[in-house]
Amino acid sequence: MHHPPNLSARLARWGLVIVAAYVVVALMLPLLLHLGLLPDPAAGVDNPVNAPPSLNHWCGTDRLGRDVCTRTLAGSGVALQVVALAVVIALVIGVPLGMVSGYLGGGVDRLLVLLMDTLYTLPVLLLSVVLAFLLGRGLPNAAAALCVVYIPQYFRVVRNQSVQIKAELYIEAARSLGAGPLWILRRYLLRNVITSVPVLLTLNAADAVLVLGGLGFLGLGLPESVPEWGGDLQQALTALPTGIWWTAVFPGLALFVLVLGLAFLGEGLERWLSDG
Question: What is the pTM of this model?
Fold first, then answer.
């Protein structure tokens, strides 16, 4: 399928710019806080509560007097940490399992496929909610809850590719020359299946940002003191009908733009690979 010229490149470029901007903010924020150029996102005792945007507080303050702008910026670092940890762990577990399952076949393959298909059929948010409830609140626990959700996706993609690749003549030739399964997996299968990983990783990251926000909104994500967009949106919900819109708009907008950037990046990479 052919797409408009340069569309994939433009999507990937815009997505990369957006994601890079969030990464820069996450890296620079601790230094800006240390230098006192921005107010502490967790402290608000000396600030007016529910103050609208002004020169002193560009995005206003929340019900505890905390600066909404700083909390929104700090939320980017929290989201990137949790999501990166979750999708990377899912990748590290899902890719090898998919390769082994697809290459070996037999009982190992049937058992792994049954387990992964069971996890895959469960709604993403529902499964993450159950896991987050069992594990409790906290950054590592939130990452673990998200990680389990995305392992089956890597597994399914990589397993299907491995089944096709192991039937190739060069794999048969390698086996006839005495190459062991581990050598074939590392030398041939990994090289071929790894090309699909960047697309899946970026799309999973976009989905994980939304799921993390959903967990925070339900009160199952991170502790209330941690700047996290979903939790801040949940706290802003009661104030929204009274006209205090800024406590919901800015975290929601930050979440939306990051998801959009990751989706653009993943879509651009997918179109570029398919066109190529």
Answer: 0.88
